[in-house]
Amino acid sequence: MACTRWVARQVGSGSEEILYGVANIGVRPTFQAGRSVEVHFFDFDRDLYGIALRVGFVRQIRKEQTFGDAEHLREQIQADSLLARQWLHQIDKEKLSWL
C-alpha cells in the first residue's frame, strides 16, 4: 500500500520521547528509487542511525504520487507537514498512547 501519512513516533532504546512528523510508505516514484519507509520529523536535528524506533501511523494525508521534480516534491512535503501539524495540534494526545 503506497501512501503518505502523518505519524507519531517514539524513540527506542528506553527513551520516552515522542516525536511527530510525516512519513511515506511506498516506491518513491519521483526518483524511481524503489520501496521504502521515510519519515520527516518536525523540529528535530539529531542522528538516529543505529537506534531502534517504534513507528505508529495515525492518519493518511494522501496517496503516493509522482512529481515533476524534487522541488515540487519538497513543496508537497511542506504542505503535508503543515496539515499534519494542524491535526496534531487538535488531537487529544491521550489518543496516541497506544504508540
Topology of helices and strands:
Blueprint: E1 3-11, E2 18-26, E3 36-41, E4 53-63, H1 70-90
Antiparallel strand pairs: 1-2, 1-4, 2-3
In words, what does this structure look like?
With 99 residues, this protein is of the alpha+beta class. Helix content is 21%, strand content 35%. It is built from one helix and four strands, in the order ββββα. The protein has a four-stranded antiparallel sheet with strand order 3-2-1-4, covered by helices on one side.
- Give the terminus-to-terminus CA distance: 21 Å
Unreliable segments (pLDDT under 50, ≥5 consecutive)? none
Percentage of residues assigned to helices: 10-25%
Oligomer: single chain
The H-and-E topology, N to C, reads as: EEEEH
Mean pLDDT, all residues: 79
Radius of gyration: 14 Å
Secondary structure: number of strands: 4
Estimate the global geometry from the Cα principal axes. Answer: globular
Strand order of the largest sheet: 3-2-1-4
* Main sheet characteristics: 4 strands, antiparallel
Tally of DSSP helical segments? 1
* Portion in beta strands: 35-45%
Q: Which secondary-structure class do the elements indicate?
A: alpha+beta
